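URGENT: need a sanity check before tomorrow's submission.

F., can you look over the Alpha-amylase record below? I want to be sure the sequence and structure line up before it goes out.
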Amino acid sequence: MKTICLYFEIHQITHLKRYRFFDIGTDHYYYDDYENDRSINEIAERSYMPALNALQEMIEKNGKYFKVAFSLSGVGMEQLELHAPQVLEKLQQLNNTGCVEFLAEPYSHGLASLVNEASFKDEVMRQCTKIEEYFGKKPTVLRNSSLIYSDDIGNDVANMGFIGMLTEGAKHVLGWKSPHYVYHCALNPKLKLLLRDVNLSDDISLRFSNSDWDGYPLFADNYMNQIAAFPEEEQVINIFMELSALGIAQPLSSNILEFMKALPQCAKDRGITFSTPSEICKKIKSVGEVNVPDTLSWVDEERDVSSWLGNPMQREAFNKLYSVADRVRIANDPRINQDWDYLQASNNFRFMTTKPSNVGLDRGIYSSPFDAFTNYMNILGDFITRVNDLYPADVDNDQLEGLLTTIKNQDEELEMKDKEIVRLQAKIEKIEKETDKLRGEKATKAPAKKAAAKSAAKKAPAKKATKAEPTEEKKD
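Structure tokens as predicted:
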């Protein structure tokens, strides 16, 4: 039986403000609050809320038959908390239906998996914690930023304990293979791979409202007919896209939500089910490994990482940022950590791309790739100075880690001693209370005993002394 795995990504760009060279060292706040508030409220109104309401309606109408998965970046959740909390509340309502799964991903929606395993793992674990706090579920399946994947990354993810990972069903990787099977990581068979069906996903997210497209207009029954026509042994159809495709890339006026609402019944009529990623990973066996020695993603025709690291400007910014990755992780300063998350976001590097793209790229405040590069490097210069100001730059990472570990151990030891002192003080207070209680009881009993003795003495009759009477001697 065929099953559809429908997944949506939710990530919100944190816009950087115009930051000039002379701001370095004087201004440590890097964000355009007005633009962040405006953009996230616009996307929430035009896309997120209508789309989530439609998905909720699909679940309520079809019961447990319809299922869907989401992933949210940590920085995206922070922006939603600040500017559009109603989106998170709606996701919690969807979670309560039992038909939704939330996936793990890097907290920053960044590129740490390409260069620093420790930072990548730290980000994923922090995002998992945030997901569990909101939805009460610990993710078991991971999707990397923009579905970035390689054999080495897959091995890292498997070692973190995840059972599955989402990635792109790129032609140059699959060759003659179909994306409609479950595969596994070439370096670690424990990790199952779900590969995106590029055509079916892009039919909805990119081409749905394009009147010049050969498949226009696309109807739900025709869409499901395509899936039903796949060979019987091709059981898993993975349809992955950004949630903003419903309302932004494809405007609501195109009837995109009406199309989505019709999918469950059309699928049911053809014996096609819906499953979450973890359900597929648990129920369906892998048919073999997929070898991905070079990194792939779901972006652009090349399906690689050239959109972020394709030119010298991008690589210079990337290398400079991650040159302090270990230092940031070791220092663990709250304000530095927050800026680190926002500066890692992959869109900061994509704004610098010089590649032509089939998908329109909005560079925001930047007039050119070089403008984006210059602004980012100014901010990065100030950020790195702040990182180095925390501890002397001549102290290398190993020394710093050893020093901070020693401090941490001493803090933990002091904390344990403080707890022991509190415990002993409580014990002493308890003993003193018990002692005072015993003394009070003893003091109360003593007068009572004395009074009782005195009372008893009064009640007892006094004994009179008696003299022996002389006896008469018998006369002869």
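My own read: The chain has three domains: 3-308, 309-397, 404-440. Confidence is low (pLDDT under 50) at residues 465-476. If you see anything odd, call me.
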